[in-house]
Predict the structure of Palmitoyltransferase.
Amino acid sequence: MKPSSSPRHIDESFAGKNKILLRGTIVTGRDFWALGVTLLLIHTPVILFSVFVCPFVYINISPAVVFVFVYLYLLCVFSLFKTSWTDPGIIPRNLDPIQPMATLGEPSSSSDLVDPSYYPVSTYPGMKDVLINGVSLKLKYCDTCQLYRPPRCSHCRQCDNCVENEDHHCIWVNNCVGRRNYPLTVYHLYLISKNMTTHEQIRSSVNIRRAPHPFNLGNFAKNLMQFIARPKPPSYIEWRKIHEHSSRMTSLPRFKPAFHQEQEPTNL
Ligand SMILES: [Zn+2]
Ligand SMILES: [Zn+2]
């Protein structure tokens, strides 16, 4: 007889809406049609160029042009799939679970029912304040993931997960873009110069009272160095063990985000 916590397919056990393949080697979204459109838009001009232009260029100009073209094409496709298939930095659920309300038992008299102190106060968590580089930030509680979102973390509605440094959800790469799979584009170079995510840039542009951005290190070179020199952190989730658990709300953290290890992080 199977135990109640018998292993299930990893895709069934994971609480978010991502598609998990090869025991967590591939963590991607479910908008495969959009990724197909992206591949079509890349490959249509690539095929036309290869068939009608490359032979002429190879013979009459230089084979080097064709080699550079092939290199750029492979780099483009590799980067696309690397971004599409990498865990963007999903935060494990239930790091700050809501405590169940205390059971008060049967009222001993009718006066209990009119006494406000008889009823339990809500245990719904409020916001938390943290100080980062001298700027006070409010940490919101995510009731879906049951955790205080670390600074710069957002909940993705498409993937249904909290993602660290979530820039945005990109349907064209079929995944969130976060701390572990940040791609480089011209627009993102602009954001990197300010050390901002897309979410932070949009919030700052609509906010009349602009608060200072505590993650800006002061100049483009420092912000760029932090982006390209920062090692990719390991995934927060123990993907290879997740299928052994039966509850979709089970948290399987390999380790916790910095915010949960330190009371007052000052340099994230
Ligand atoms: Zn969340
Ligand atoms: Zn997403």
Remarks:
- The two ends are 49 Å apart (CA to CA).
- Residues 142, 144-145, 155, 162 surround zinc ion (ligand 1) (CB under 6 Å).
- Residues 263-268 have pLDDT under 50 and may be disordered.
